[in-house]
Write a structure and sequence with these properties.
- By secondary structure, this protein is of the alpha/beta class.
- It has a single domain, classed as Nucleoside phosphorylase domain (Rossmann fold), CATH 3.40.50.1580.
- It contains 7 helices and 9 strands.
- The chain has a 5-stranded mixed β-barrel, surrounded by 4 helices.
- A hairpin with a 6-residue loop joins strand 2 and strand 3.
- Helix 2 packs parallel to helix 5 and helix 3 crosses helix 7.
- It is globular and about 45 Å long.
- The mean pLDDT is 97.
- The structure holds 1-O-phosphono-alpha-D-ribofuranose (R1P) and uracil (URA).
- The site of uracil (URA) has 9 residues, from strand 5, strand 8 and strand 9.
Length: 234
């Protein structure tokens, strides 16, 4: 038991991390075999089951850098988790992006103060190369429209100058906005674990509607499958 995870079942060395705990529940109930719930503390639902014969866990982290930092620290430090794949939603910044397009975050810029508390300089939070490469190969093989590039992990969903700010980030090559990737990459670097942020586009300035709650919970099949197949390769 740790302050935020009270395991009632095994936790696998590889884990998928959606922000939404109901996304975790959907994956456990529909894509894993023999899934058992290992956590329910604070509604951060976590499950472990098998996928193609390999043990995989999936756990909702909630939204934002402080929450995901707590969960991934406890998972790596106390529960032996070695491979972490965030499966989130994001705002897609490029004009040709469409709903549910897949994004693999090579690195995560951030507006968050988290790394300022740690480093005397700017840390570059990056994905594990082999995990990224594997996910990219799997997505390409399945002909899933996939973008790789920098993401922005922001502390504010409702920022004051969201449009202007995203133009600035875009100018420097950022392709999508979300709220957890930078913390995941930074903390995984500390514990020498593999991490990847994989995102499905849920909205964007060039897209005429947002994904529904139900689509974000249950509809991101391409991302779920690419994440599961990537996870079991490690
Ligand atoms: O769908 P999830 O994984 O929660 O990801 C995105 O959605 C939330 C904001 O609506 C933030 O957590 C953001 O990172
Ligand atoms: O964090 C997020 C998620 C979806 N869309 C955004 O603009 N930001």
């Amino acid at each position: 038991m740790t302050p935020h995870i009270n395991p009632k079942a095994e936790i696998a060395p590889r884990i998928l991390l959606p922000g939404d705990p109901l996304r975790a529940k959907y994956i456990a109930e529909n894509m894993l075999e023999n899934a058992e719930q290992f956590n329910e503390v604070r509604g951060a639902l976590g499950f472990t089951g098998t996928y193609k014969g390999e043990k995989v866990s999936v756990m909702g982290t909630g939204m934002g850098m402080p929450q995901v930092s707590i969960y991934v620290t406890e998972l790596m430090k106390f529960y032996g988790v070695k491979t972490l794949i965030r499966i989130g939603t994001c705002g897609g910044m490029l004009p040709d992006m469409q709903l549910m397009d897949l994004i693999l975050g090579t690195g995560a810029c951030t507006t968050s103060g988290i790394n300022r508390h740690i480093f005397n300089g700017d840390f570059a939070p990056t994905a594990d190369f082999e995990l990224l490469n594997k996910a990219y190969e799997i997505a390409k093989e399945r002909e899933i429209k996939t973008y790789t590039g920098l993401i922005l992990s922001s502390d504010m969903f409702y920022g004051e100058n969201k449009k202007e700010d995203s133009e600035m980030w875009k100018k420097y090559g950022v392709i999508a906005g979300e709220m957890e990737g930078a913390a995941l990459y930074t903390i995984a670097a500390k514990y020498r674990c593999r991490a990847l942020t994989m995102l499905s586009v849920s909205d964007g300035p060039f897209i005429d509607r947002d994904l529904t709650y139900e689509e974000k919970e249950k509809g991101l099949k391409n991302m779920f499958e690419v994440a599961l197949d990537t996870a079991i390769a490690f």
